[in-house]
What does this fold into?
Amino acid sequence: MKTTIEFDESDRSVIGLEDEYEAGFVDPTHQHGRDQILYASAGVMSVTTARANFVIPPQRAIWIPANVAHEVACRGPVSLRTLYLSDVRPASRDCRVLEVTDLLRALIVEVSKLGGFYENSARNQLLIELLKVELGNTPLAHFQVPMPHDYRLLRVCRMIIADPAGQHDLNELASLAGMGRRSFTRAFRAEMGMSLAIWRQQVRLMRALTLLSEGQSVTTVAFDVGYDSPSAFTTVFHRAFGVLPSQYQPR
It folds into this structure.
C-alpha cells in the first residue's frame, strides 16, 4: 500500500500507518522488506499471492511475511490500518488471516497512529510489547483459497474468481485451459489436492463473505454467488464456517 520515507529510515520495530481507499482501488503486485499486517476496520479487501487468494472481511487482518509478493484490491471503500514489523516472527512464513479480538483491534488502531518516528516513551513501549504478545496468541481464520502454479489451471482459476457465479461446465473450463476434460480434472486434483467443484465452492464462499460484510441480504448473496436457493447456500455456508451467514452481516 502507500509507502513513506518512514518505512526505510525508521529504526522502530513496529511502524503504523493509516490509509483510506476508494472502491476499486488495486495496489499491483509488490513486496516489503518487513512483515506486514493489513487490517480493514471498515470495508473488504482481497490479497492475492502466488500461492493463494485471501478475502479479508471487516474485523479480520492478514499477516504478510517479508518479501512475499502480493496484490491488494479493495472491493469497496476501505479504512486500512497497516503495521510493518521488523522483529515479530510468526511460526509460519506463509500469509495468514487473523481473527482480530477486541484487544488486538484497539492495539492495531492505536499503534497505527504512531507513524514511524514515535517517542520511545513508557506508554509507547508498553503498547508495542502488548501488541506483540497479542499477535502471538491470535487464532487463525480460514478465508483463503489456494492458487495453482500451472499457467493453464491458473487461467481457469482467475476466471472463476472474477465470476464465482458463472456456470461454466467442465468441458468449457478444460477448453479454456487448452486441455482435454480428463487431463484437466486429473491435473487440477493433482496440483490443488481437491476437485474443481470443491475449489469453486470455496471461491463462492469467499465472495459471499465479502457481500455479506457489505450488508447485502442472505437471499441476494446466495443468488449472486451461484446457488439455486438461499437454503442451499445457508447449508453449505454453515457447514464450512459453523455459523449462519447472517452472523457476517454488519450489526
Q: What stands out?
A: The longest helix spans residues 196-213. The chain has two domains: 5-141, 148-248.
